[in-house]
Design goal:
Blueprint: E1 3-9, H1 17-30, E2 40-46, E3 58-68, H2 73-90, E4 98-108
Parallel strand pairs: 1-2, 3-4
Antiparallel strand pairs: 1-3
Helix pairs in contact: 1-2
């Protein structure tokens, strides 16, 4: 935990979703609310979308941070601001389109959440094989 999902409209030329995922993961790890290894993120470019009643000249970046329930509203607000700052800091969003950037923190029901880890993570240090 947490799970981070980033959806963005296809008209954001130059938007580097991969670097945004790295920036968000780093920011979440630095928040000290999560173990680094538990942060999972993904991005999805949305080809079919509408913003309002006419999407020409409009786009979006919509982020969802799903965390186990039990954190205070203050903590959730801090996390959403952390994610928003990371997205804005890494993005190469152009003024070509109006872009709405949103962050939503979602509680995951703790009693119904299941997780297991298969295998073993191995990091090859320089010089090790």
């Amino acid at each position: 935990m947490p799970h981070f999902a980033l959806h963005y409209s296809a008209n954001l030329g130059g938007f580097d979703a991969a670097s945004c995922l790295v920036a968000v993961n780093s920011a979440l790890a630095a928040s000290r609310h999560f173990e680094e290894v538990d942060i999972k993120s993904r991005a999805l470019r949305i080809e079919s979308y509408e913003v309002g009643t006419h999407s020409r000249g409009r786009g979006f970046v919509a982020a969802q941070l799903s965390i186990l329930e039990g954190r205070s509203d203050k903590t959730k607000k801090e996390l959403s601001e952390t994610v928003l700052k990371a997205i804005l800091g890494c993005s190469t969003l152009q003024a070509i389109v109006e872009v709405q950037v949103t962050v939503e923190v979602i509680d995951i029901h703790r009693a119904s959440y299941a997780k297991t880890v298969l295998g073993e993570a191995r990091f090859l240090a320089e010089g090790n094989t």
